[in-house]
């Protein structure tokens, strides 16, 4: 079953100015239910733009985006959020610092639901939040009324992962969500993400700069270059993928040698 | 003297609704809203015109708050839909309000109609008729309105929508990703805050017995001064306590003004005094930090010599 379908999507920024850049060139991509795709590519390859187009931060110039059978191409970001869970690169962006943990979770719990003049949280929810937070094994379940601003970057990203998945998303979008973390914390947050993705069998799109992470995680690897998808590796090939093999595959499909730009990824 | 202090307290109570309105945008939405300078006179003018036309003062006061909300809607629309920066959106509404106010009143100021030899028709009249003095009726009525409106705002902030508004002030990107229409939140919230401000203006007009086009000048600074007095003097965390300190801040501000005027400062210097006070209050954290650093340096030096 196709969960996310991106068809013939084009996006140009600064059209008609000297800064014009054609960031996505007729991109086609399709994720099945339970697919966990890592998206990799050099700077300016279009991976972040692709993710923002799926999320609705940018609208495409042409093409269609379908999530679980719903055509969302023209839906604004906040309406599309009903289908999507997102974790951002910057830990500051995914959570509200001056609100406490349970207030943040209660906001996320209402994603895709009508908000009204009911109280912002019910006591039943608190039990759910404690249970989900205890899965993190960070001790956050006993700090529900602590301000999120008091948490470390890693704790905030872990909380953001819970928030993105509290209402099961049709597609989970991870936008370089460990890039801003220190080398010790990053793998932990990735592991927490993997656990959640596996537990709920979530369809996931993870953009990363790190080739090793892209190889190690997920069941598909998509490589972008100059606004196009140049590699889409899945199945057994993905399982047994190595850095050397990936570079060889890249050279096969690319008319030029593995350039400096792509080498930066290792 | 007692009478003067009483007057300052009731004025502080009446203006505290405006202070809460400024707090809503300045502290919760993180968007300094200058339209309050305009909406305060929109409220005053609407109430004064309706009352002087013979309408019920309560109805006139409610209408005044609604007209203020329209002002807030305009600011929100300019900012969210037309992408005009927040400060400029507020200034545009403020400037336009002056013309609207003259349209509403038909002149640059109107007095409320007399009610018997010593009173004017206002929301306070019914208390006076029950035998209270004018001063006491204003205080009692203002206290009731402030408690009701403060409680309403407190509960609003605790609702799902209120929580979404607070998060919008904190982190727009995050709430959008949680499916909240941030533009709608901002517009609605500006309507509420400017409704509070206009209500304040309407009550003050009825307290002083007239509305004039220049009574709004400096409102934003008065509001900020009251908010900052509240925060500097009372360092409280709980939200209801913060709302209470805003009322206290507004009253203390009026008492300070009364005091300096009593001490002989010309009324025309008031705005300069006010601006300087706010500058000092806003730089207090910076000054405190510098002092702490200087103190630590001194301590470190002392420690080494030992």
Quickly list its features.
heterodimer, A: 266 residues, alpha/beta, 6-stranded mixed beta sheet, 4-stranded antiparallel beta sheet, globular, B: 306 residues, mainly alpha, two-stranded antiparallel ribbon
Structure notes:
The complex is a heterodimer of chains A (266) and B (306). With 266 residues, chain A is an alpha/beta fold. Helices cover 35% and strands 24% of the residues of chain A. Chain A contains eleven helices and ten strands. In chain A, the strands form two sheets. Chain A has a six-stranded mixed β-sheet with strand order 6-7-8-3-9-10, with helices on both faces. In chain A, a hairpin with a 7-residue loop joins strand 1 and strand 2. The longest helix of chain A has 16 residues. In chain A, 45% of the residues are buried. Chain B has 306 residues and is mainly α. A two-stranded antiparallel ribbon of chain B has the order 1-4. Chain B has a two-stranded antiparallel ribbon with strand order 2-3. In chain B, a hairpin with a 3-residue loop joins strand 2 and strand 3. Chain B is globular, with a radius of gyration of 21 Å. At the A-B interface, helix 2, helix 3 and helix 4 of A face helix 7 and helix 8 of B.
Nutshell version of this structure?
The complex is a heterodimer of chains A (266) and B (306). Chain A has 266 residues and is an alpha/beta fold.
Work out the number of β strands of chain A. Answer: 10
Number of strands of chain B: 4
Q: Which oligomeric form is depicted?
A: heterodimer
Question: What proportion strand of chain A?
Answer: 15-25%
Task: Choose one word for the global shape of chain A.
Answer: globular
Strand order of the largest sheet of chain B: 1-4
Low-pLDDT residue spans of chain A: none
Number of helix segments of chain B?
A: 12
What amount of the residues of chain B lies in strands?
Answer: under 5%
**Approximately how much helix is present in the residues of chain B?**
over 70%
State the shape of chain B. Answer: globular
Major sheet attributes of chain A: 6 strands, mixed
- SSE string of chain B: HHHHEEEHHHHHEHHH
Q: Please give the alpha-carbon distance between the first and last residues of chain B.
A: 57 Å
Number of helices of chain A: 11
Largest sheet of chain B: 2 strands, antiparallel
Spatial sequence of strands, sheet with the most strands of chain A: 6-7-8-3-9-10
Q: Which residues of chain B form runs of ≥5 with pLDDT under 50?
A: none
Largest interface: A-B, 33 and 22 residues
Question: Cα-atom Rg of chain A, whole angstroms?
Answer: 19 Å
């Amino acid at each position: 079953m196709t969960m996310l379908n991106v068809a013939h999507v084009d996006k140009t920024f600064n059209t008609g100015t000297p800064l014009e850049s054609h960031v996505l060139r007729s991109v086609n991509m399709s994720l099945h239910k339970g697919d966990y795709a890592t998206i990799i590519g050099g700077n300016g390859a279009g991976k972040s733009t692709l993710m923002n187009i799926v999320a609705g931060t940018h609208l495409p110039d042409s093409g269609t985006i379908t999530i679980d059978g719903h055509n969302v191409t023209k839906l604004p970001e906040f309406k599309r959020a009903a289908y999507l869970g997102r974790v951002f690169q910057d830990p500051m962006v995914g959570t509200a610092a001056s609100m406490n943990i349970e207030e943040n979770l209660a906001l996320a719990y209402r994603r895709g639901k009508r908000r009204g003049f009911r109280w912002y949280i019910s006591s039943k929810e608190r039990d759910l939040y404690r249970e989900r937070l205890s899965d993190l094994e960070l001790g956050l379940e006993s700090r529900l009324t602590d301000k999120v601003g008091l948490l470390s970057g890693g704790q905030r990203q872990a909380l953001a992962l819970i928030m993105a998945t509290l209402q099961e998303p049709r597609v989970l979008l991870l936008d370089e969500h460990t890039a801003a973390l220190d080398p010790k914390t990053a793998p932990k947050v990735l592991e927490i993400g993997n656990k959640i993705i596996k537990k709920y069998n979530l369809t996931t799109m993870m953009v990363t700069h790190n080739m090793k992470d892209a190889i190690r995680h997920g069941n598909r690897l998509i490589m972008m270059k100059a606004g196009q998808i140049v590699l889409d590796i899945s199945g057994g090939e993905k399982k047994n993928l190595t850095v050397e093999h990936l570079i060889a595959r890249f050279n096969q499909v690319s008319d030029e040698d593995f350039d400096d730009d792509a080498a930066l990824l290792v | 003297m007692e009478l003067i202090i009483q007057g300052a307290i009731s004025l502080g109570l009446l203006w505290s609704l405006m202070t809460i309105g400024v707090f809503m945008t300045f502290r919760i939405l993180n968007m300094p809203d200058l339209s309050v300078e305009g909406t305060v006179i929109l409220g005053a003018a609407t109430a004064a015109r309706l009352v002087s036309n013979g309408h019920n003062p309560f109805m006139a006061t409610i209408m005044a708050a609604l007209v203020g909300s329209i002002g807030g809607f305009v600011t929100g629309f300019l900012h969210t839909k037309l992408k005009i920066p927040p400060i400029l959106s507020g200034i545009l509404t403020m400037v336009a309000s002056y013309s609207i106010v003259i349209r509403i009143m038909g002149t640059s100021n109107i007095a409320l109609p007399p009610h018997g030899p010593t009173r004017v028709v206002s929301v306070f009249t019914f208390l006076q008729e029950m035998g209270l003095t004018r001063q006491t009726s204003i205080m009692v009525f203002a206290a009731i309105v402030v408690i009701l409106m403060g409680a309403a705002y407190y509960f609003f902030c605790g609702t799902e929508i209120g929580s979404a508004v607070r998060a919008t002030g904190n982190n727009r990107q995050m709430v959008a990703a949680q499916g909240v229409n941030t533009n709608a939140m901002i517009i609605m919230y500006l309507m509420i805050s400017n409704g509070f401000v206009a209500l304040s203006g309407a009550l003050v007009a009825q307290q002083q017995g007239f509305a004039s086009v220049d009574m709004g000048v400096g409102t934003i600074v008065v509001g900020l001064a009251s908010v900052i007095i509240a925060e500097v003097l009372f360092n409280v965390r709980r939200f209801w306590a913060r709302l209470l300190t805003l009322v206290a801040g507004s009253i203390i501000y009026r008492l300070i003004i009364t005091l300096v005027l009593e001490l002989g400062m010309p009324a025309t210097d008031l705005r300069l005094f006010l601006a300087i006070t706010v500058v000092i209050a806003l730089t207090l954290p910076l000054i405190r930090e510098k002092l702490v650093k200087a103190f630590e340096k001194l301590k470190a030096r002392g420690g080494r010599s030992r």
